[in-house]
Amino acid sequence: MDLQTLTYLVVGFTFLIYIGIAVWSRAHSTGDFYVAGKGVHPVANGMATAADWMSAASFISMAGLIAFLGYDGSVYLMGWTGGYVLLALLLAPYLRKYGKFTVPSFIADRYYSRTARVVAVICLIFISFTYVAGQMRGVGIVFSRFLEVDILTGLLIGMGVVFIYAVLGGMKGITYTQVAQYCVLIFAYTVPAVFISIQLTGNPLPQLGLGSTVSGESMYLLDKLDMVVQDLGFGAYTDGSKAMIDVAAITLALMVGTAGLPHVIVRFFTVPKVSDARKSAGWALLFIALLYTTAPAVGAMARLNLIETIWPGEVAESQPLAYEDRPEWFRTWENTGLLDFTDNNGDGLIQYYNSDNPDFAPIAESKGWEGNELVVDRDIMVLANPEIANLPNWVIALIAAGGVAAALSTAAGLLLVISSAVSHDLVKNIIAPNMSDRGELLTGRIAAAVAIGVAGYLGYNPPGFVAQVVAFAFGLAAASLFPAIIMGIFSTRINREGAIAGMLTGLIFTFSYILYFKGIFITPIAANVPENWLFGISPEGIGVVGMLLNFGVAFTISRFTAAPPKHIRELIEDIRVPRGAGGAQAH
Questions:
Q1: What tens digit of pLDDT does each residue of 385-422 get?
Q2: What is the pLDDT of residues 168-200, one digit of tens each?
Q3: Residue 54 — left, alpha, or beta (φ > 0 → left; ψ -120 to 50 → alpha)?
Q4: pTM score
Q5: What does the angle CA 23 – CA 29 – CA 33 come to, to the nearest 5 degrees?
Q6: Which of 72, 269, 426, 477 is the most buried (most CB within 10 A)?
Q7: Exposed, middle or buried, 317 (CB in 10 Å: 0-12/13-18/19+)?
Q8: Angle formed by the axes of helices 168-201 and 295-310, to 10°?
């Protein structure tokens, strides 16, 4: 069976499963729509949380980042996993004990202010739409290649599937759909990794294969990768080039951003008991670790396979591949526009090297090269890796289904968070407080449908590659919602004035900095280079500075304004006291 037919069958079958689950578990009340009736088992919730969080950035883009950044890509591994420890220890059980539907509801009650609710909704929408742009780009990339349609058509297909199970099923439908999506994505990620690890090292475990010798050679895989990239003028794969302050800032921004992401936090409102919230976080860490411990091997092996395809034989002693002899995978990815060859010197050979390295320029010049001729979008590396390695068609079709599952699972969670913020926090609690339960459910579905349309537009006009866009979302979460939540739980002195000012300060500063250097919707004002960055911190890590500004403004203003009322202070103490933590029900 040819690859396209097989891909249609595999991806179509998974779509039928997702839609079937959504119909079976469709929401009948606002409780079902927002928090799945608070009846999800911790193991199932852990799998759903892992799928919700392991987005297109984790599945498609993270290993691609590691493939090209090498050691510097470790910030994404450390930040995104470390954040779950913070979430499990500092937020999940307390927010579940409080028992509200949404993060803005907690902020509104804790800071006794409708304005605080509105500001939290604004922060949530900025974060979620930035995040969902990356997911929809992932959907477009997968469909454009494996279904051989243009990106717009792929986006429309993905939007249609999300519409059915997010709008119809709500959180209940999404939760059980995400359990299925986790099974699909983790199987799709690990199976090709096992095949490729066996090919390159003879070791079936990619995690161990990364530290093994290359089959038939005495050289370790990472040593060989270091050698071939340096032969092409790139820095050593196992060396870092980022400044330590930027590494620390990005890692911390991703960590606290994870703990402040509303679509992740809301997952802990879906379990029956407070103790189940901690258990869910523990299970989620286990399920996430299966992918995250595999990603470094996938990235390194993909980079080695790519270079050895372009340079058959030793790089220093051979000619690069002739363009007319390029393999089939090269041709198919060229058709997507995500891989591009330009023959600068007209010799018909694919010169792939680091043309920005001044030390390598004399070598390139002596060979008659006139600049790098191959541009590879890093988001394609995981998806193209099985094709580069000549794996069976069923493995290639499987990874397509996994990429779609990863992107759609997170997109659905984000869209539901947006719809609940609009319907529950704005319409129900601000605009029309007398709205019926049925009216609120209808409003939530309409809001989800509108959000899907906006998400599709952002996916078609993305502000960057997938993991970078997602990093921006984490920075915004770190700078805006995380401080308000953490201070709301652990400080009895922070009042509404301080919290509101802090959230706005963190959000405006971080978003403005990203716009200044990245120009998501406008032309960037300044060149995005380390010399121009504040304290040497890149836009991906600037959320840390926004977070510190948020804390500083909140504490300063709270110190010079009235303390929170007595009942709020008692509420905070009640949230923190572990009384009945094993079985306490929500207030």
A1: 888 888 888 888 888 888 777 777 777 777 777 777 77
A2: 655 566 777 778 888 888 888 899 999 999 999
A3: beta
A4: 0.77
A5: 65
A6: 477
A7: exposed
A8: 60
